[in-house]
Automatic annotation (TrEMBL):
<dbReference type="InterPro" id="IPR041673">
    <property type="entry name" value="TetR_C_23"/>
</dbReference>
<protein>
    <submittedName>
        <fullName>TetR family transcriptional regulator C-terminal domain-containing protein</fullName>
    </submittedName>
</protein>
<dbReference type="Pfam" id="PF17931">
    <property type="entry name" value="TetR_C_23"/>
</dbReference>
<feature type="domain" description="Tetracyclin repressor-like C-terminal">
    <location>
        <begin position="78"/>
        <end position="208"/>
    </location>
</feature>
<dbReference type="InterPro" id="IPR036271">
    <property type="entry name" value="Tet_transcr_reg_TetR-rel_C_sf"/>
</dbReference>
């Protein structure tokens, strides 16, 4: 049995039984494969879940970037497109996600959930590229505190988990409130990270300091 088939069988088991298999042994027995075959592909059930979440992310990126207009977007628009597309991918798998979510430590944006580890790694690669692009296009202000700027990917990861948590609990028609929250959240982030009155004040202070009278 291939890796993808094991993964699909696991997802179907969660959907049908509403819970994780009692053991890898029991799961393998149901699939009529030896445990050794399972361990050749995965080390645990959380590892399968981690790969599933990464797959949702990769599907999102592929779908968003396949849109002809994506390349013309500003970084703010690219991130909005990512989140809107991601939620659409999540909608297609909501039944599984709701069950998987039950096994997460909460609140998810303040806890480390191993099920999201591969998704997190892939997301950081993606967001680091966007942050770099945003610095080049001046959508994100270059600030004289490197330690602060290094934390920007952490900020966007926290927002991602917050959006997931919000969507899980969203009962509005077609998850309209989630769309609104995405828009406000991303716009607020770029308003804060972009040039602001505070930056103008800091620039003035720097100028006055450099040109102070001896």
């Amino acid at each position: 049995m291939t890796k993808d088939k094991i993964k699909q069988a696991y997802v179907e088991y969660i959907l049908e039984k509403g819970t994780q298999p009692e053991s890898i042994y029991a799961f393998c027995k149901k699939l009529k494969i030896k445990e050794a075959a399972f361990y050749e592909e995965y080390t645990s059930f959380p590892q399968i879940e981690s790969e599933v979440w990464k797959e949702y992310f990769l599907d999102t990126i592929t779908s968003a970037q396949n849109e002809e207009v994506y390349g013309t977007y500003s970084v703010r628009e690219k991130l909005l497109a990512f989140f809107y597309t991601w939620v659409e991918v999540l909608k297609q798998n909501r039944s599984y996600i709701l069950k998987a979510y039950e096994g997460f430590q909460k609140p998810i944006y303040a806890k480390r959930n191993v099920q999201l580890s591969e998704f997190k790694i892939a997301f950081y690669d993606y967001i680091n590229e966007l942050v770099l692009e945003a610095r080049e296009t001046k959508e994100i202000e270059q600030r004289p505190i490197p330690q602060l700027m290094q934390r920007y990917p952490d900020l966007f990861w926290a927002k991602t988990l917050f959006i997931l948590d919000f969507w899980i609990n969203d009962t509005s028609k077609s998850f309209e409130k989630t769309d609104t929250m995405i828009e406000k959240s991303v716009n607020t982030a770029f308003d804060l990270l972009g040039h602001s009155p505070l930056d103008s004040l800091l620039d003035l202070g720097k100028f006055l300091f450099q040109n102070r009278r001896a």
